[in-house]
Design brief:
This protein has 11 helices and 18 strands. By secondary structure, the chain is α/β, with parallel strands linked by helices. The strands form 4 sheets. Strands 3, 5, 6, 9, 10, 17 and 18 form a 7-stranded mixed beta sheet that branches. A 6-stranded parallel beta sheet has the order 13-12-11-14-15-16, sandwiched between helices.
Length: about 350
């Protein structure tokens, strides 16, 4: 049996770099030699046991790689293609799939979350989930397609309009991309709230109009002051914490849109006043993951250089150092985005 090296999570906080079998593919699947894989904000939650996932598990879902084997029925992908993949594997038959809402598929499996992913030398993916990439796209850029597709989905769910004011809570890898895309979508003013000094400077360097230091200012009052007391037209919560969600409800103007983008703990709850949603005619939308055309749009944005992942990526670590990378992602908020180099030499 042929083997590969992979980072296997056996139980919360017990990830081991070890030798495991190379995945066996079916007629409709493709085997990919993983080149790069990003550490997503979800990965530390899975690692710590705060996000529901089975074990043992090979995490990693923001990946790029090269096709090294194809199933006998595969016709759209060839060995040697540079690719990435939609992580959401759906049945294609249930009510939600037939409604074009694959994210709610009754049998959904996500690569690196529910089934083995790309913190490994190889990963297998259904042909239908594969996206071929331009030959001149770097492996690092290609590994950012998945998170960019997610942000595009959030922007489309919000339907950000020309000349609008957009407030974003959290200058992490997702919040910073939301800021850039909000500008592309026509927002006249982008306001960002953040506590970490390094991330504040990064937001300023990327052209955010107003960056609020939430460690010294009341971000709700600051947004109100910048909008003549009204609040922002669109508010995007990109942290995933109850206190920042509470701030988001206070930042959005009457008739505005609140995007619940940050992944709060599954069992966390907060009090809301239904009368305020009613009387302010608020629109509240959730955005969970990228899907369908957002992957193609992400590929086009990166290949056209309109969006540059290098602006967000902080560092690259080798696969054998994956645990250190996850720990740094958890504890070092000066780091924005870590990419894992999965080209292990044995």
């Amino acid at each position: 049996m042929k083997t590969m090296l992979a980072a296997v999570l056996h139980e919360p906080k017990d990830m081991r770099f070890e030798e495991v079998p190379i995945p066996e593919i079916t007629d409709q699947e493709v085997l990919i030699a993983v080149k790069r894989c990003g550490i997503c904000g979800t990965d530390p939650h899975i690692y710590n046991g705060h996000f529901p996932a089975p074990t043992p598990l090979i995490q990693g879902h923001e990946f790029s790689g090269e096709v090294v084997r194809i199933g006998s029925s595969v016709t759209t992908v060839s060995v040697g293609n540079k690719v990435t993949a939609d992580i959401n594997i759906s049945c294609g038959k249930c009510f939600y799939c037939r409604m074009g809402q694959k994210l709610f598929c009754e049998k959904i499996s996500q690569i690196g979350v529910h089934i083995n992913g790309a913190f490994a030398q190889y990963v297998k993916v259904p042909e239908s989930n594969i996206y071929k990439l331009p030959d001149d796209m770097t492996w690092e850029d290609a590994a950012y397609i998945e998170p960019l597709a997610c942000v595009i989905r959030g922007q489309e769910r919000a339907n950000i309009t020309m000349g609008s004011t957009v407030a974003i809570i959290g200058a992490g890898p997702m919040g910073l991309v939301h800021a850039q895309l909000a500008k592309m979508n026509g927002a006249s003013t982008v306001i960002m709230s953040e506590m970490n000094a390094s991330r504040i400077e990064k937001a300023k360097s990327l052209g955010v109009d107003h960056v609020i230091d939430a460690s010294t200012q009341d971000p709700v009052k600051a947004v109100q002051d910048l909008t003549e007391g009204r609040g922002a037209d669109f508010v995007i919560e990109a942290v995933g914490a109850i206190p920042t969600y509470q701030q988001a409800f206070q930042m959005v103007r009457k008739g505005g849109v609140l995007v619940t983008y940050g992944a709060a703990p599954a069992h966390a709850s907060m009090e809301i006043k239904p009368f305020e949603i009613y009387s302010k005619e608020l629109t509240i939308v959730g955005s969970y993951a990228g899907t369908y055309d957002t992957w193609l749009k992400a590929i086009h944005l990166i290949s056209s250089k309109r969006f540059k992942p290098a602006d967000i990526i902080s560092k690259t670590v080798p696969l054998p150092k994956i645990v250190e990378g996850i720990q740094e992602a958890i504890h070092n908020k000066d780091i924005i985005k870590i990419i894992v180099d999965c080209t292990v030499t044995e």
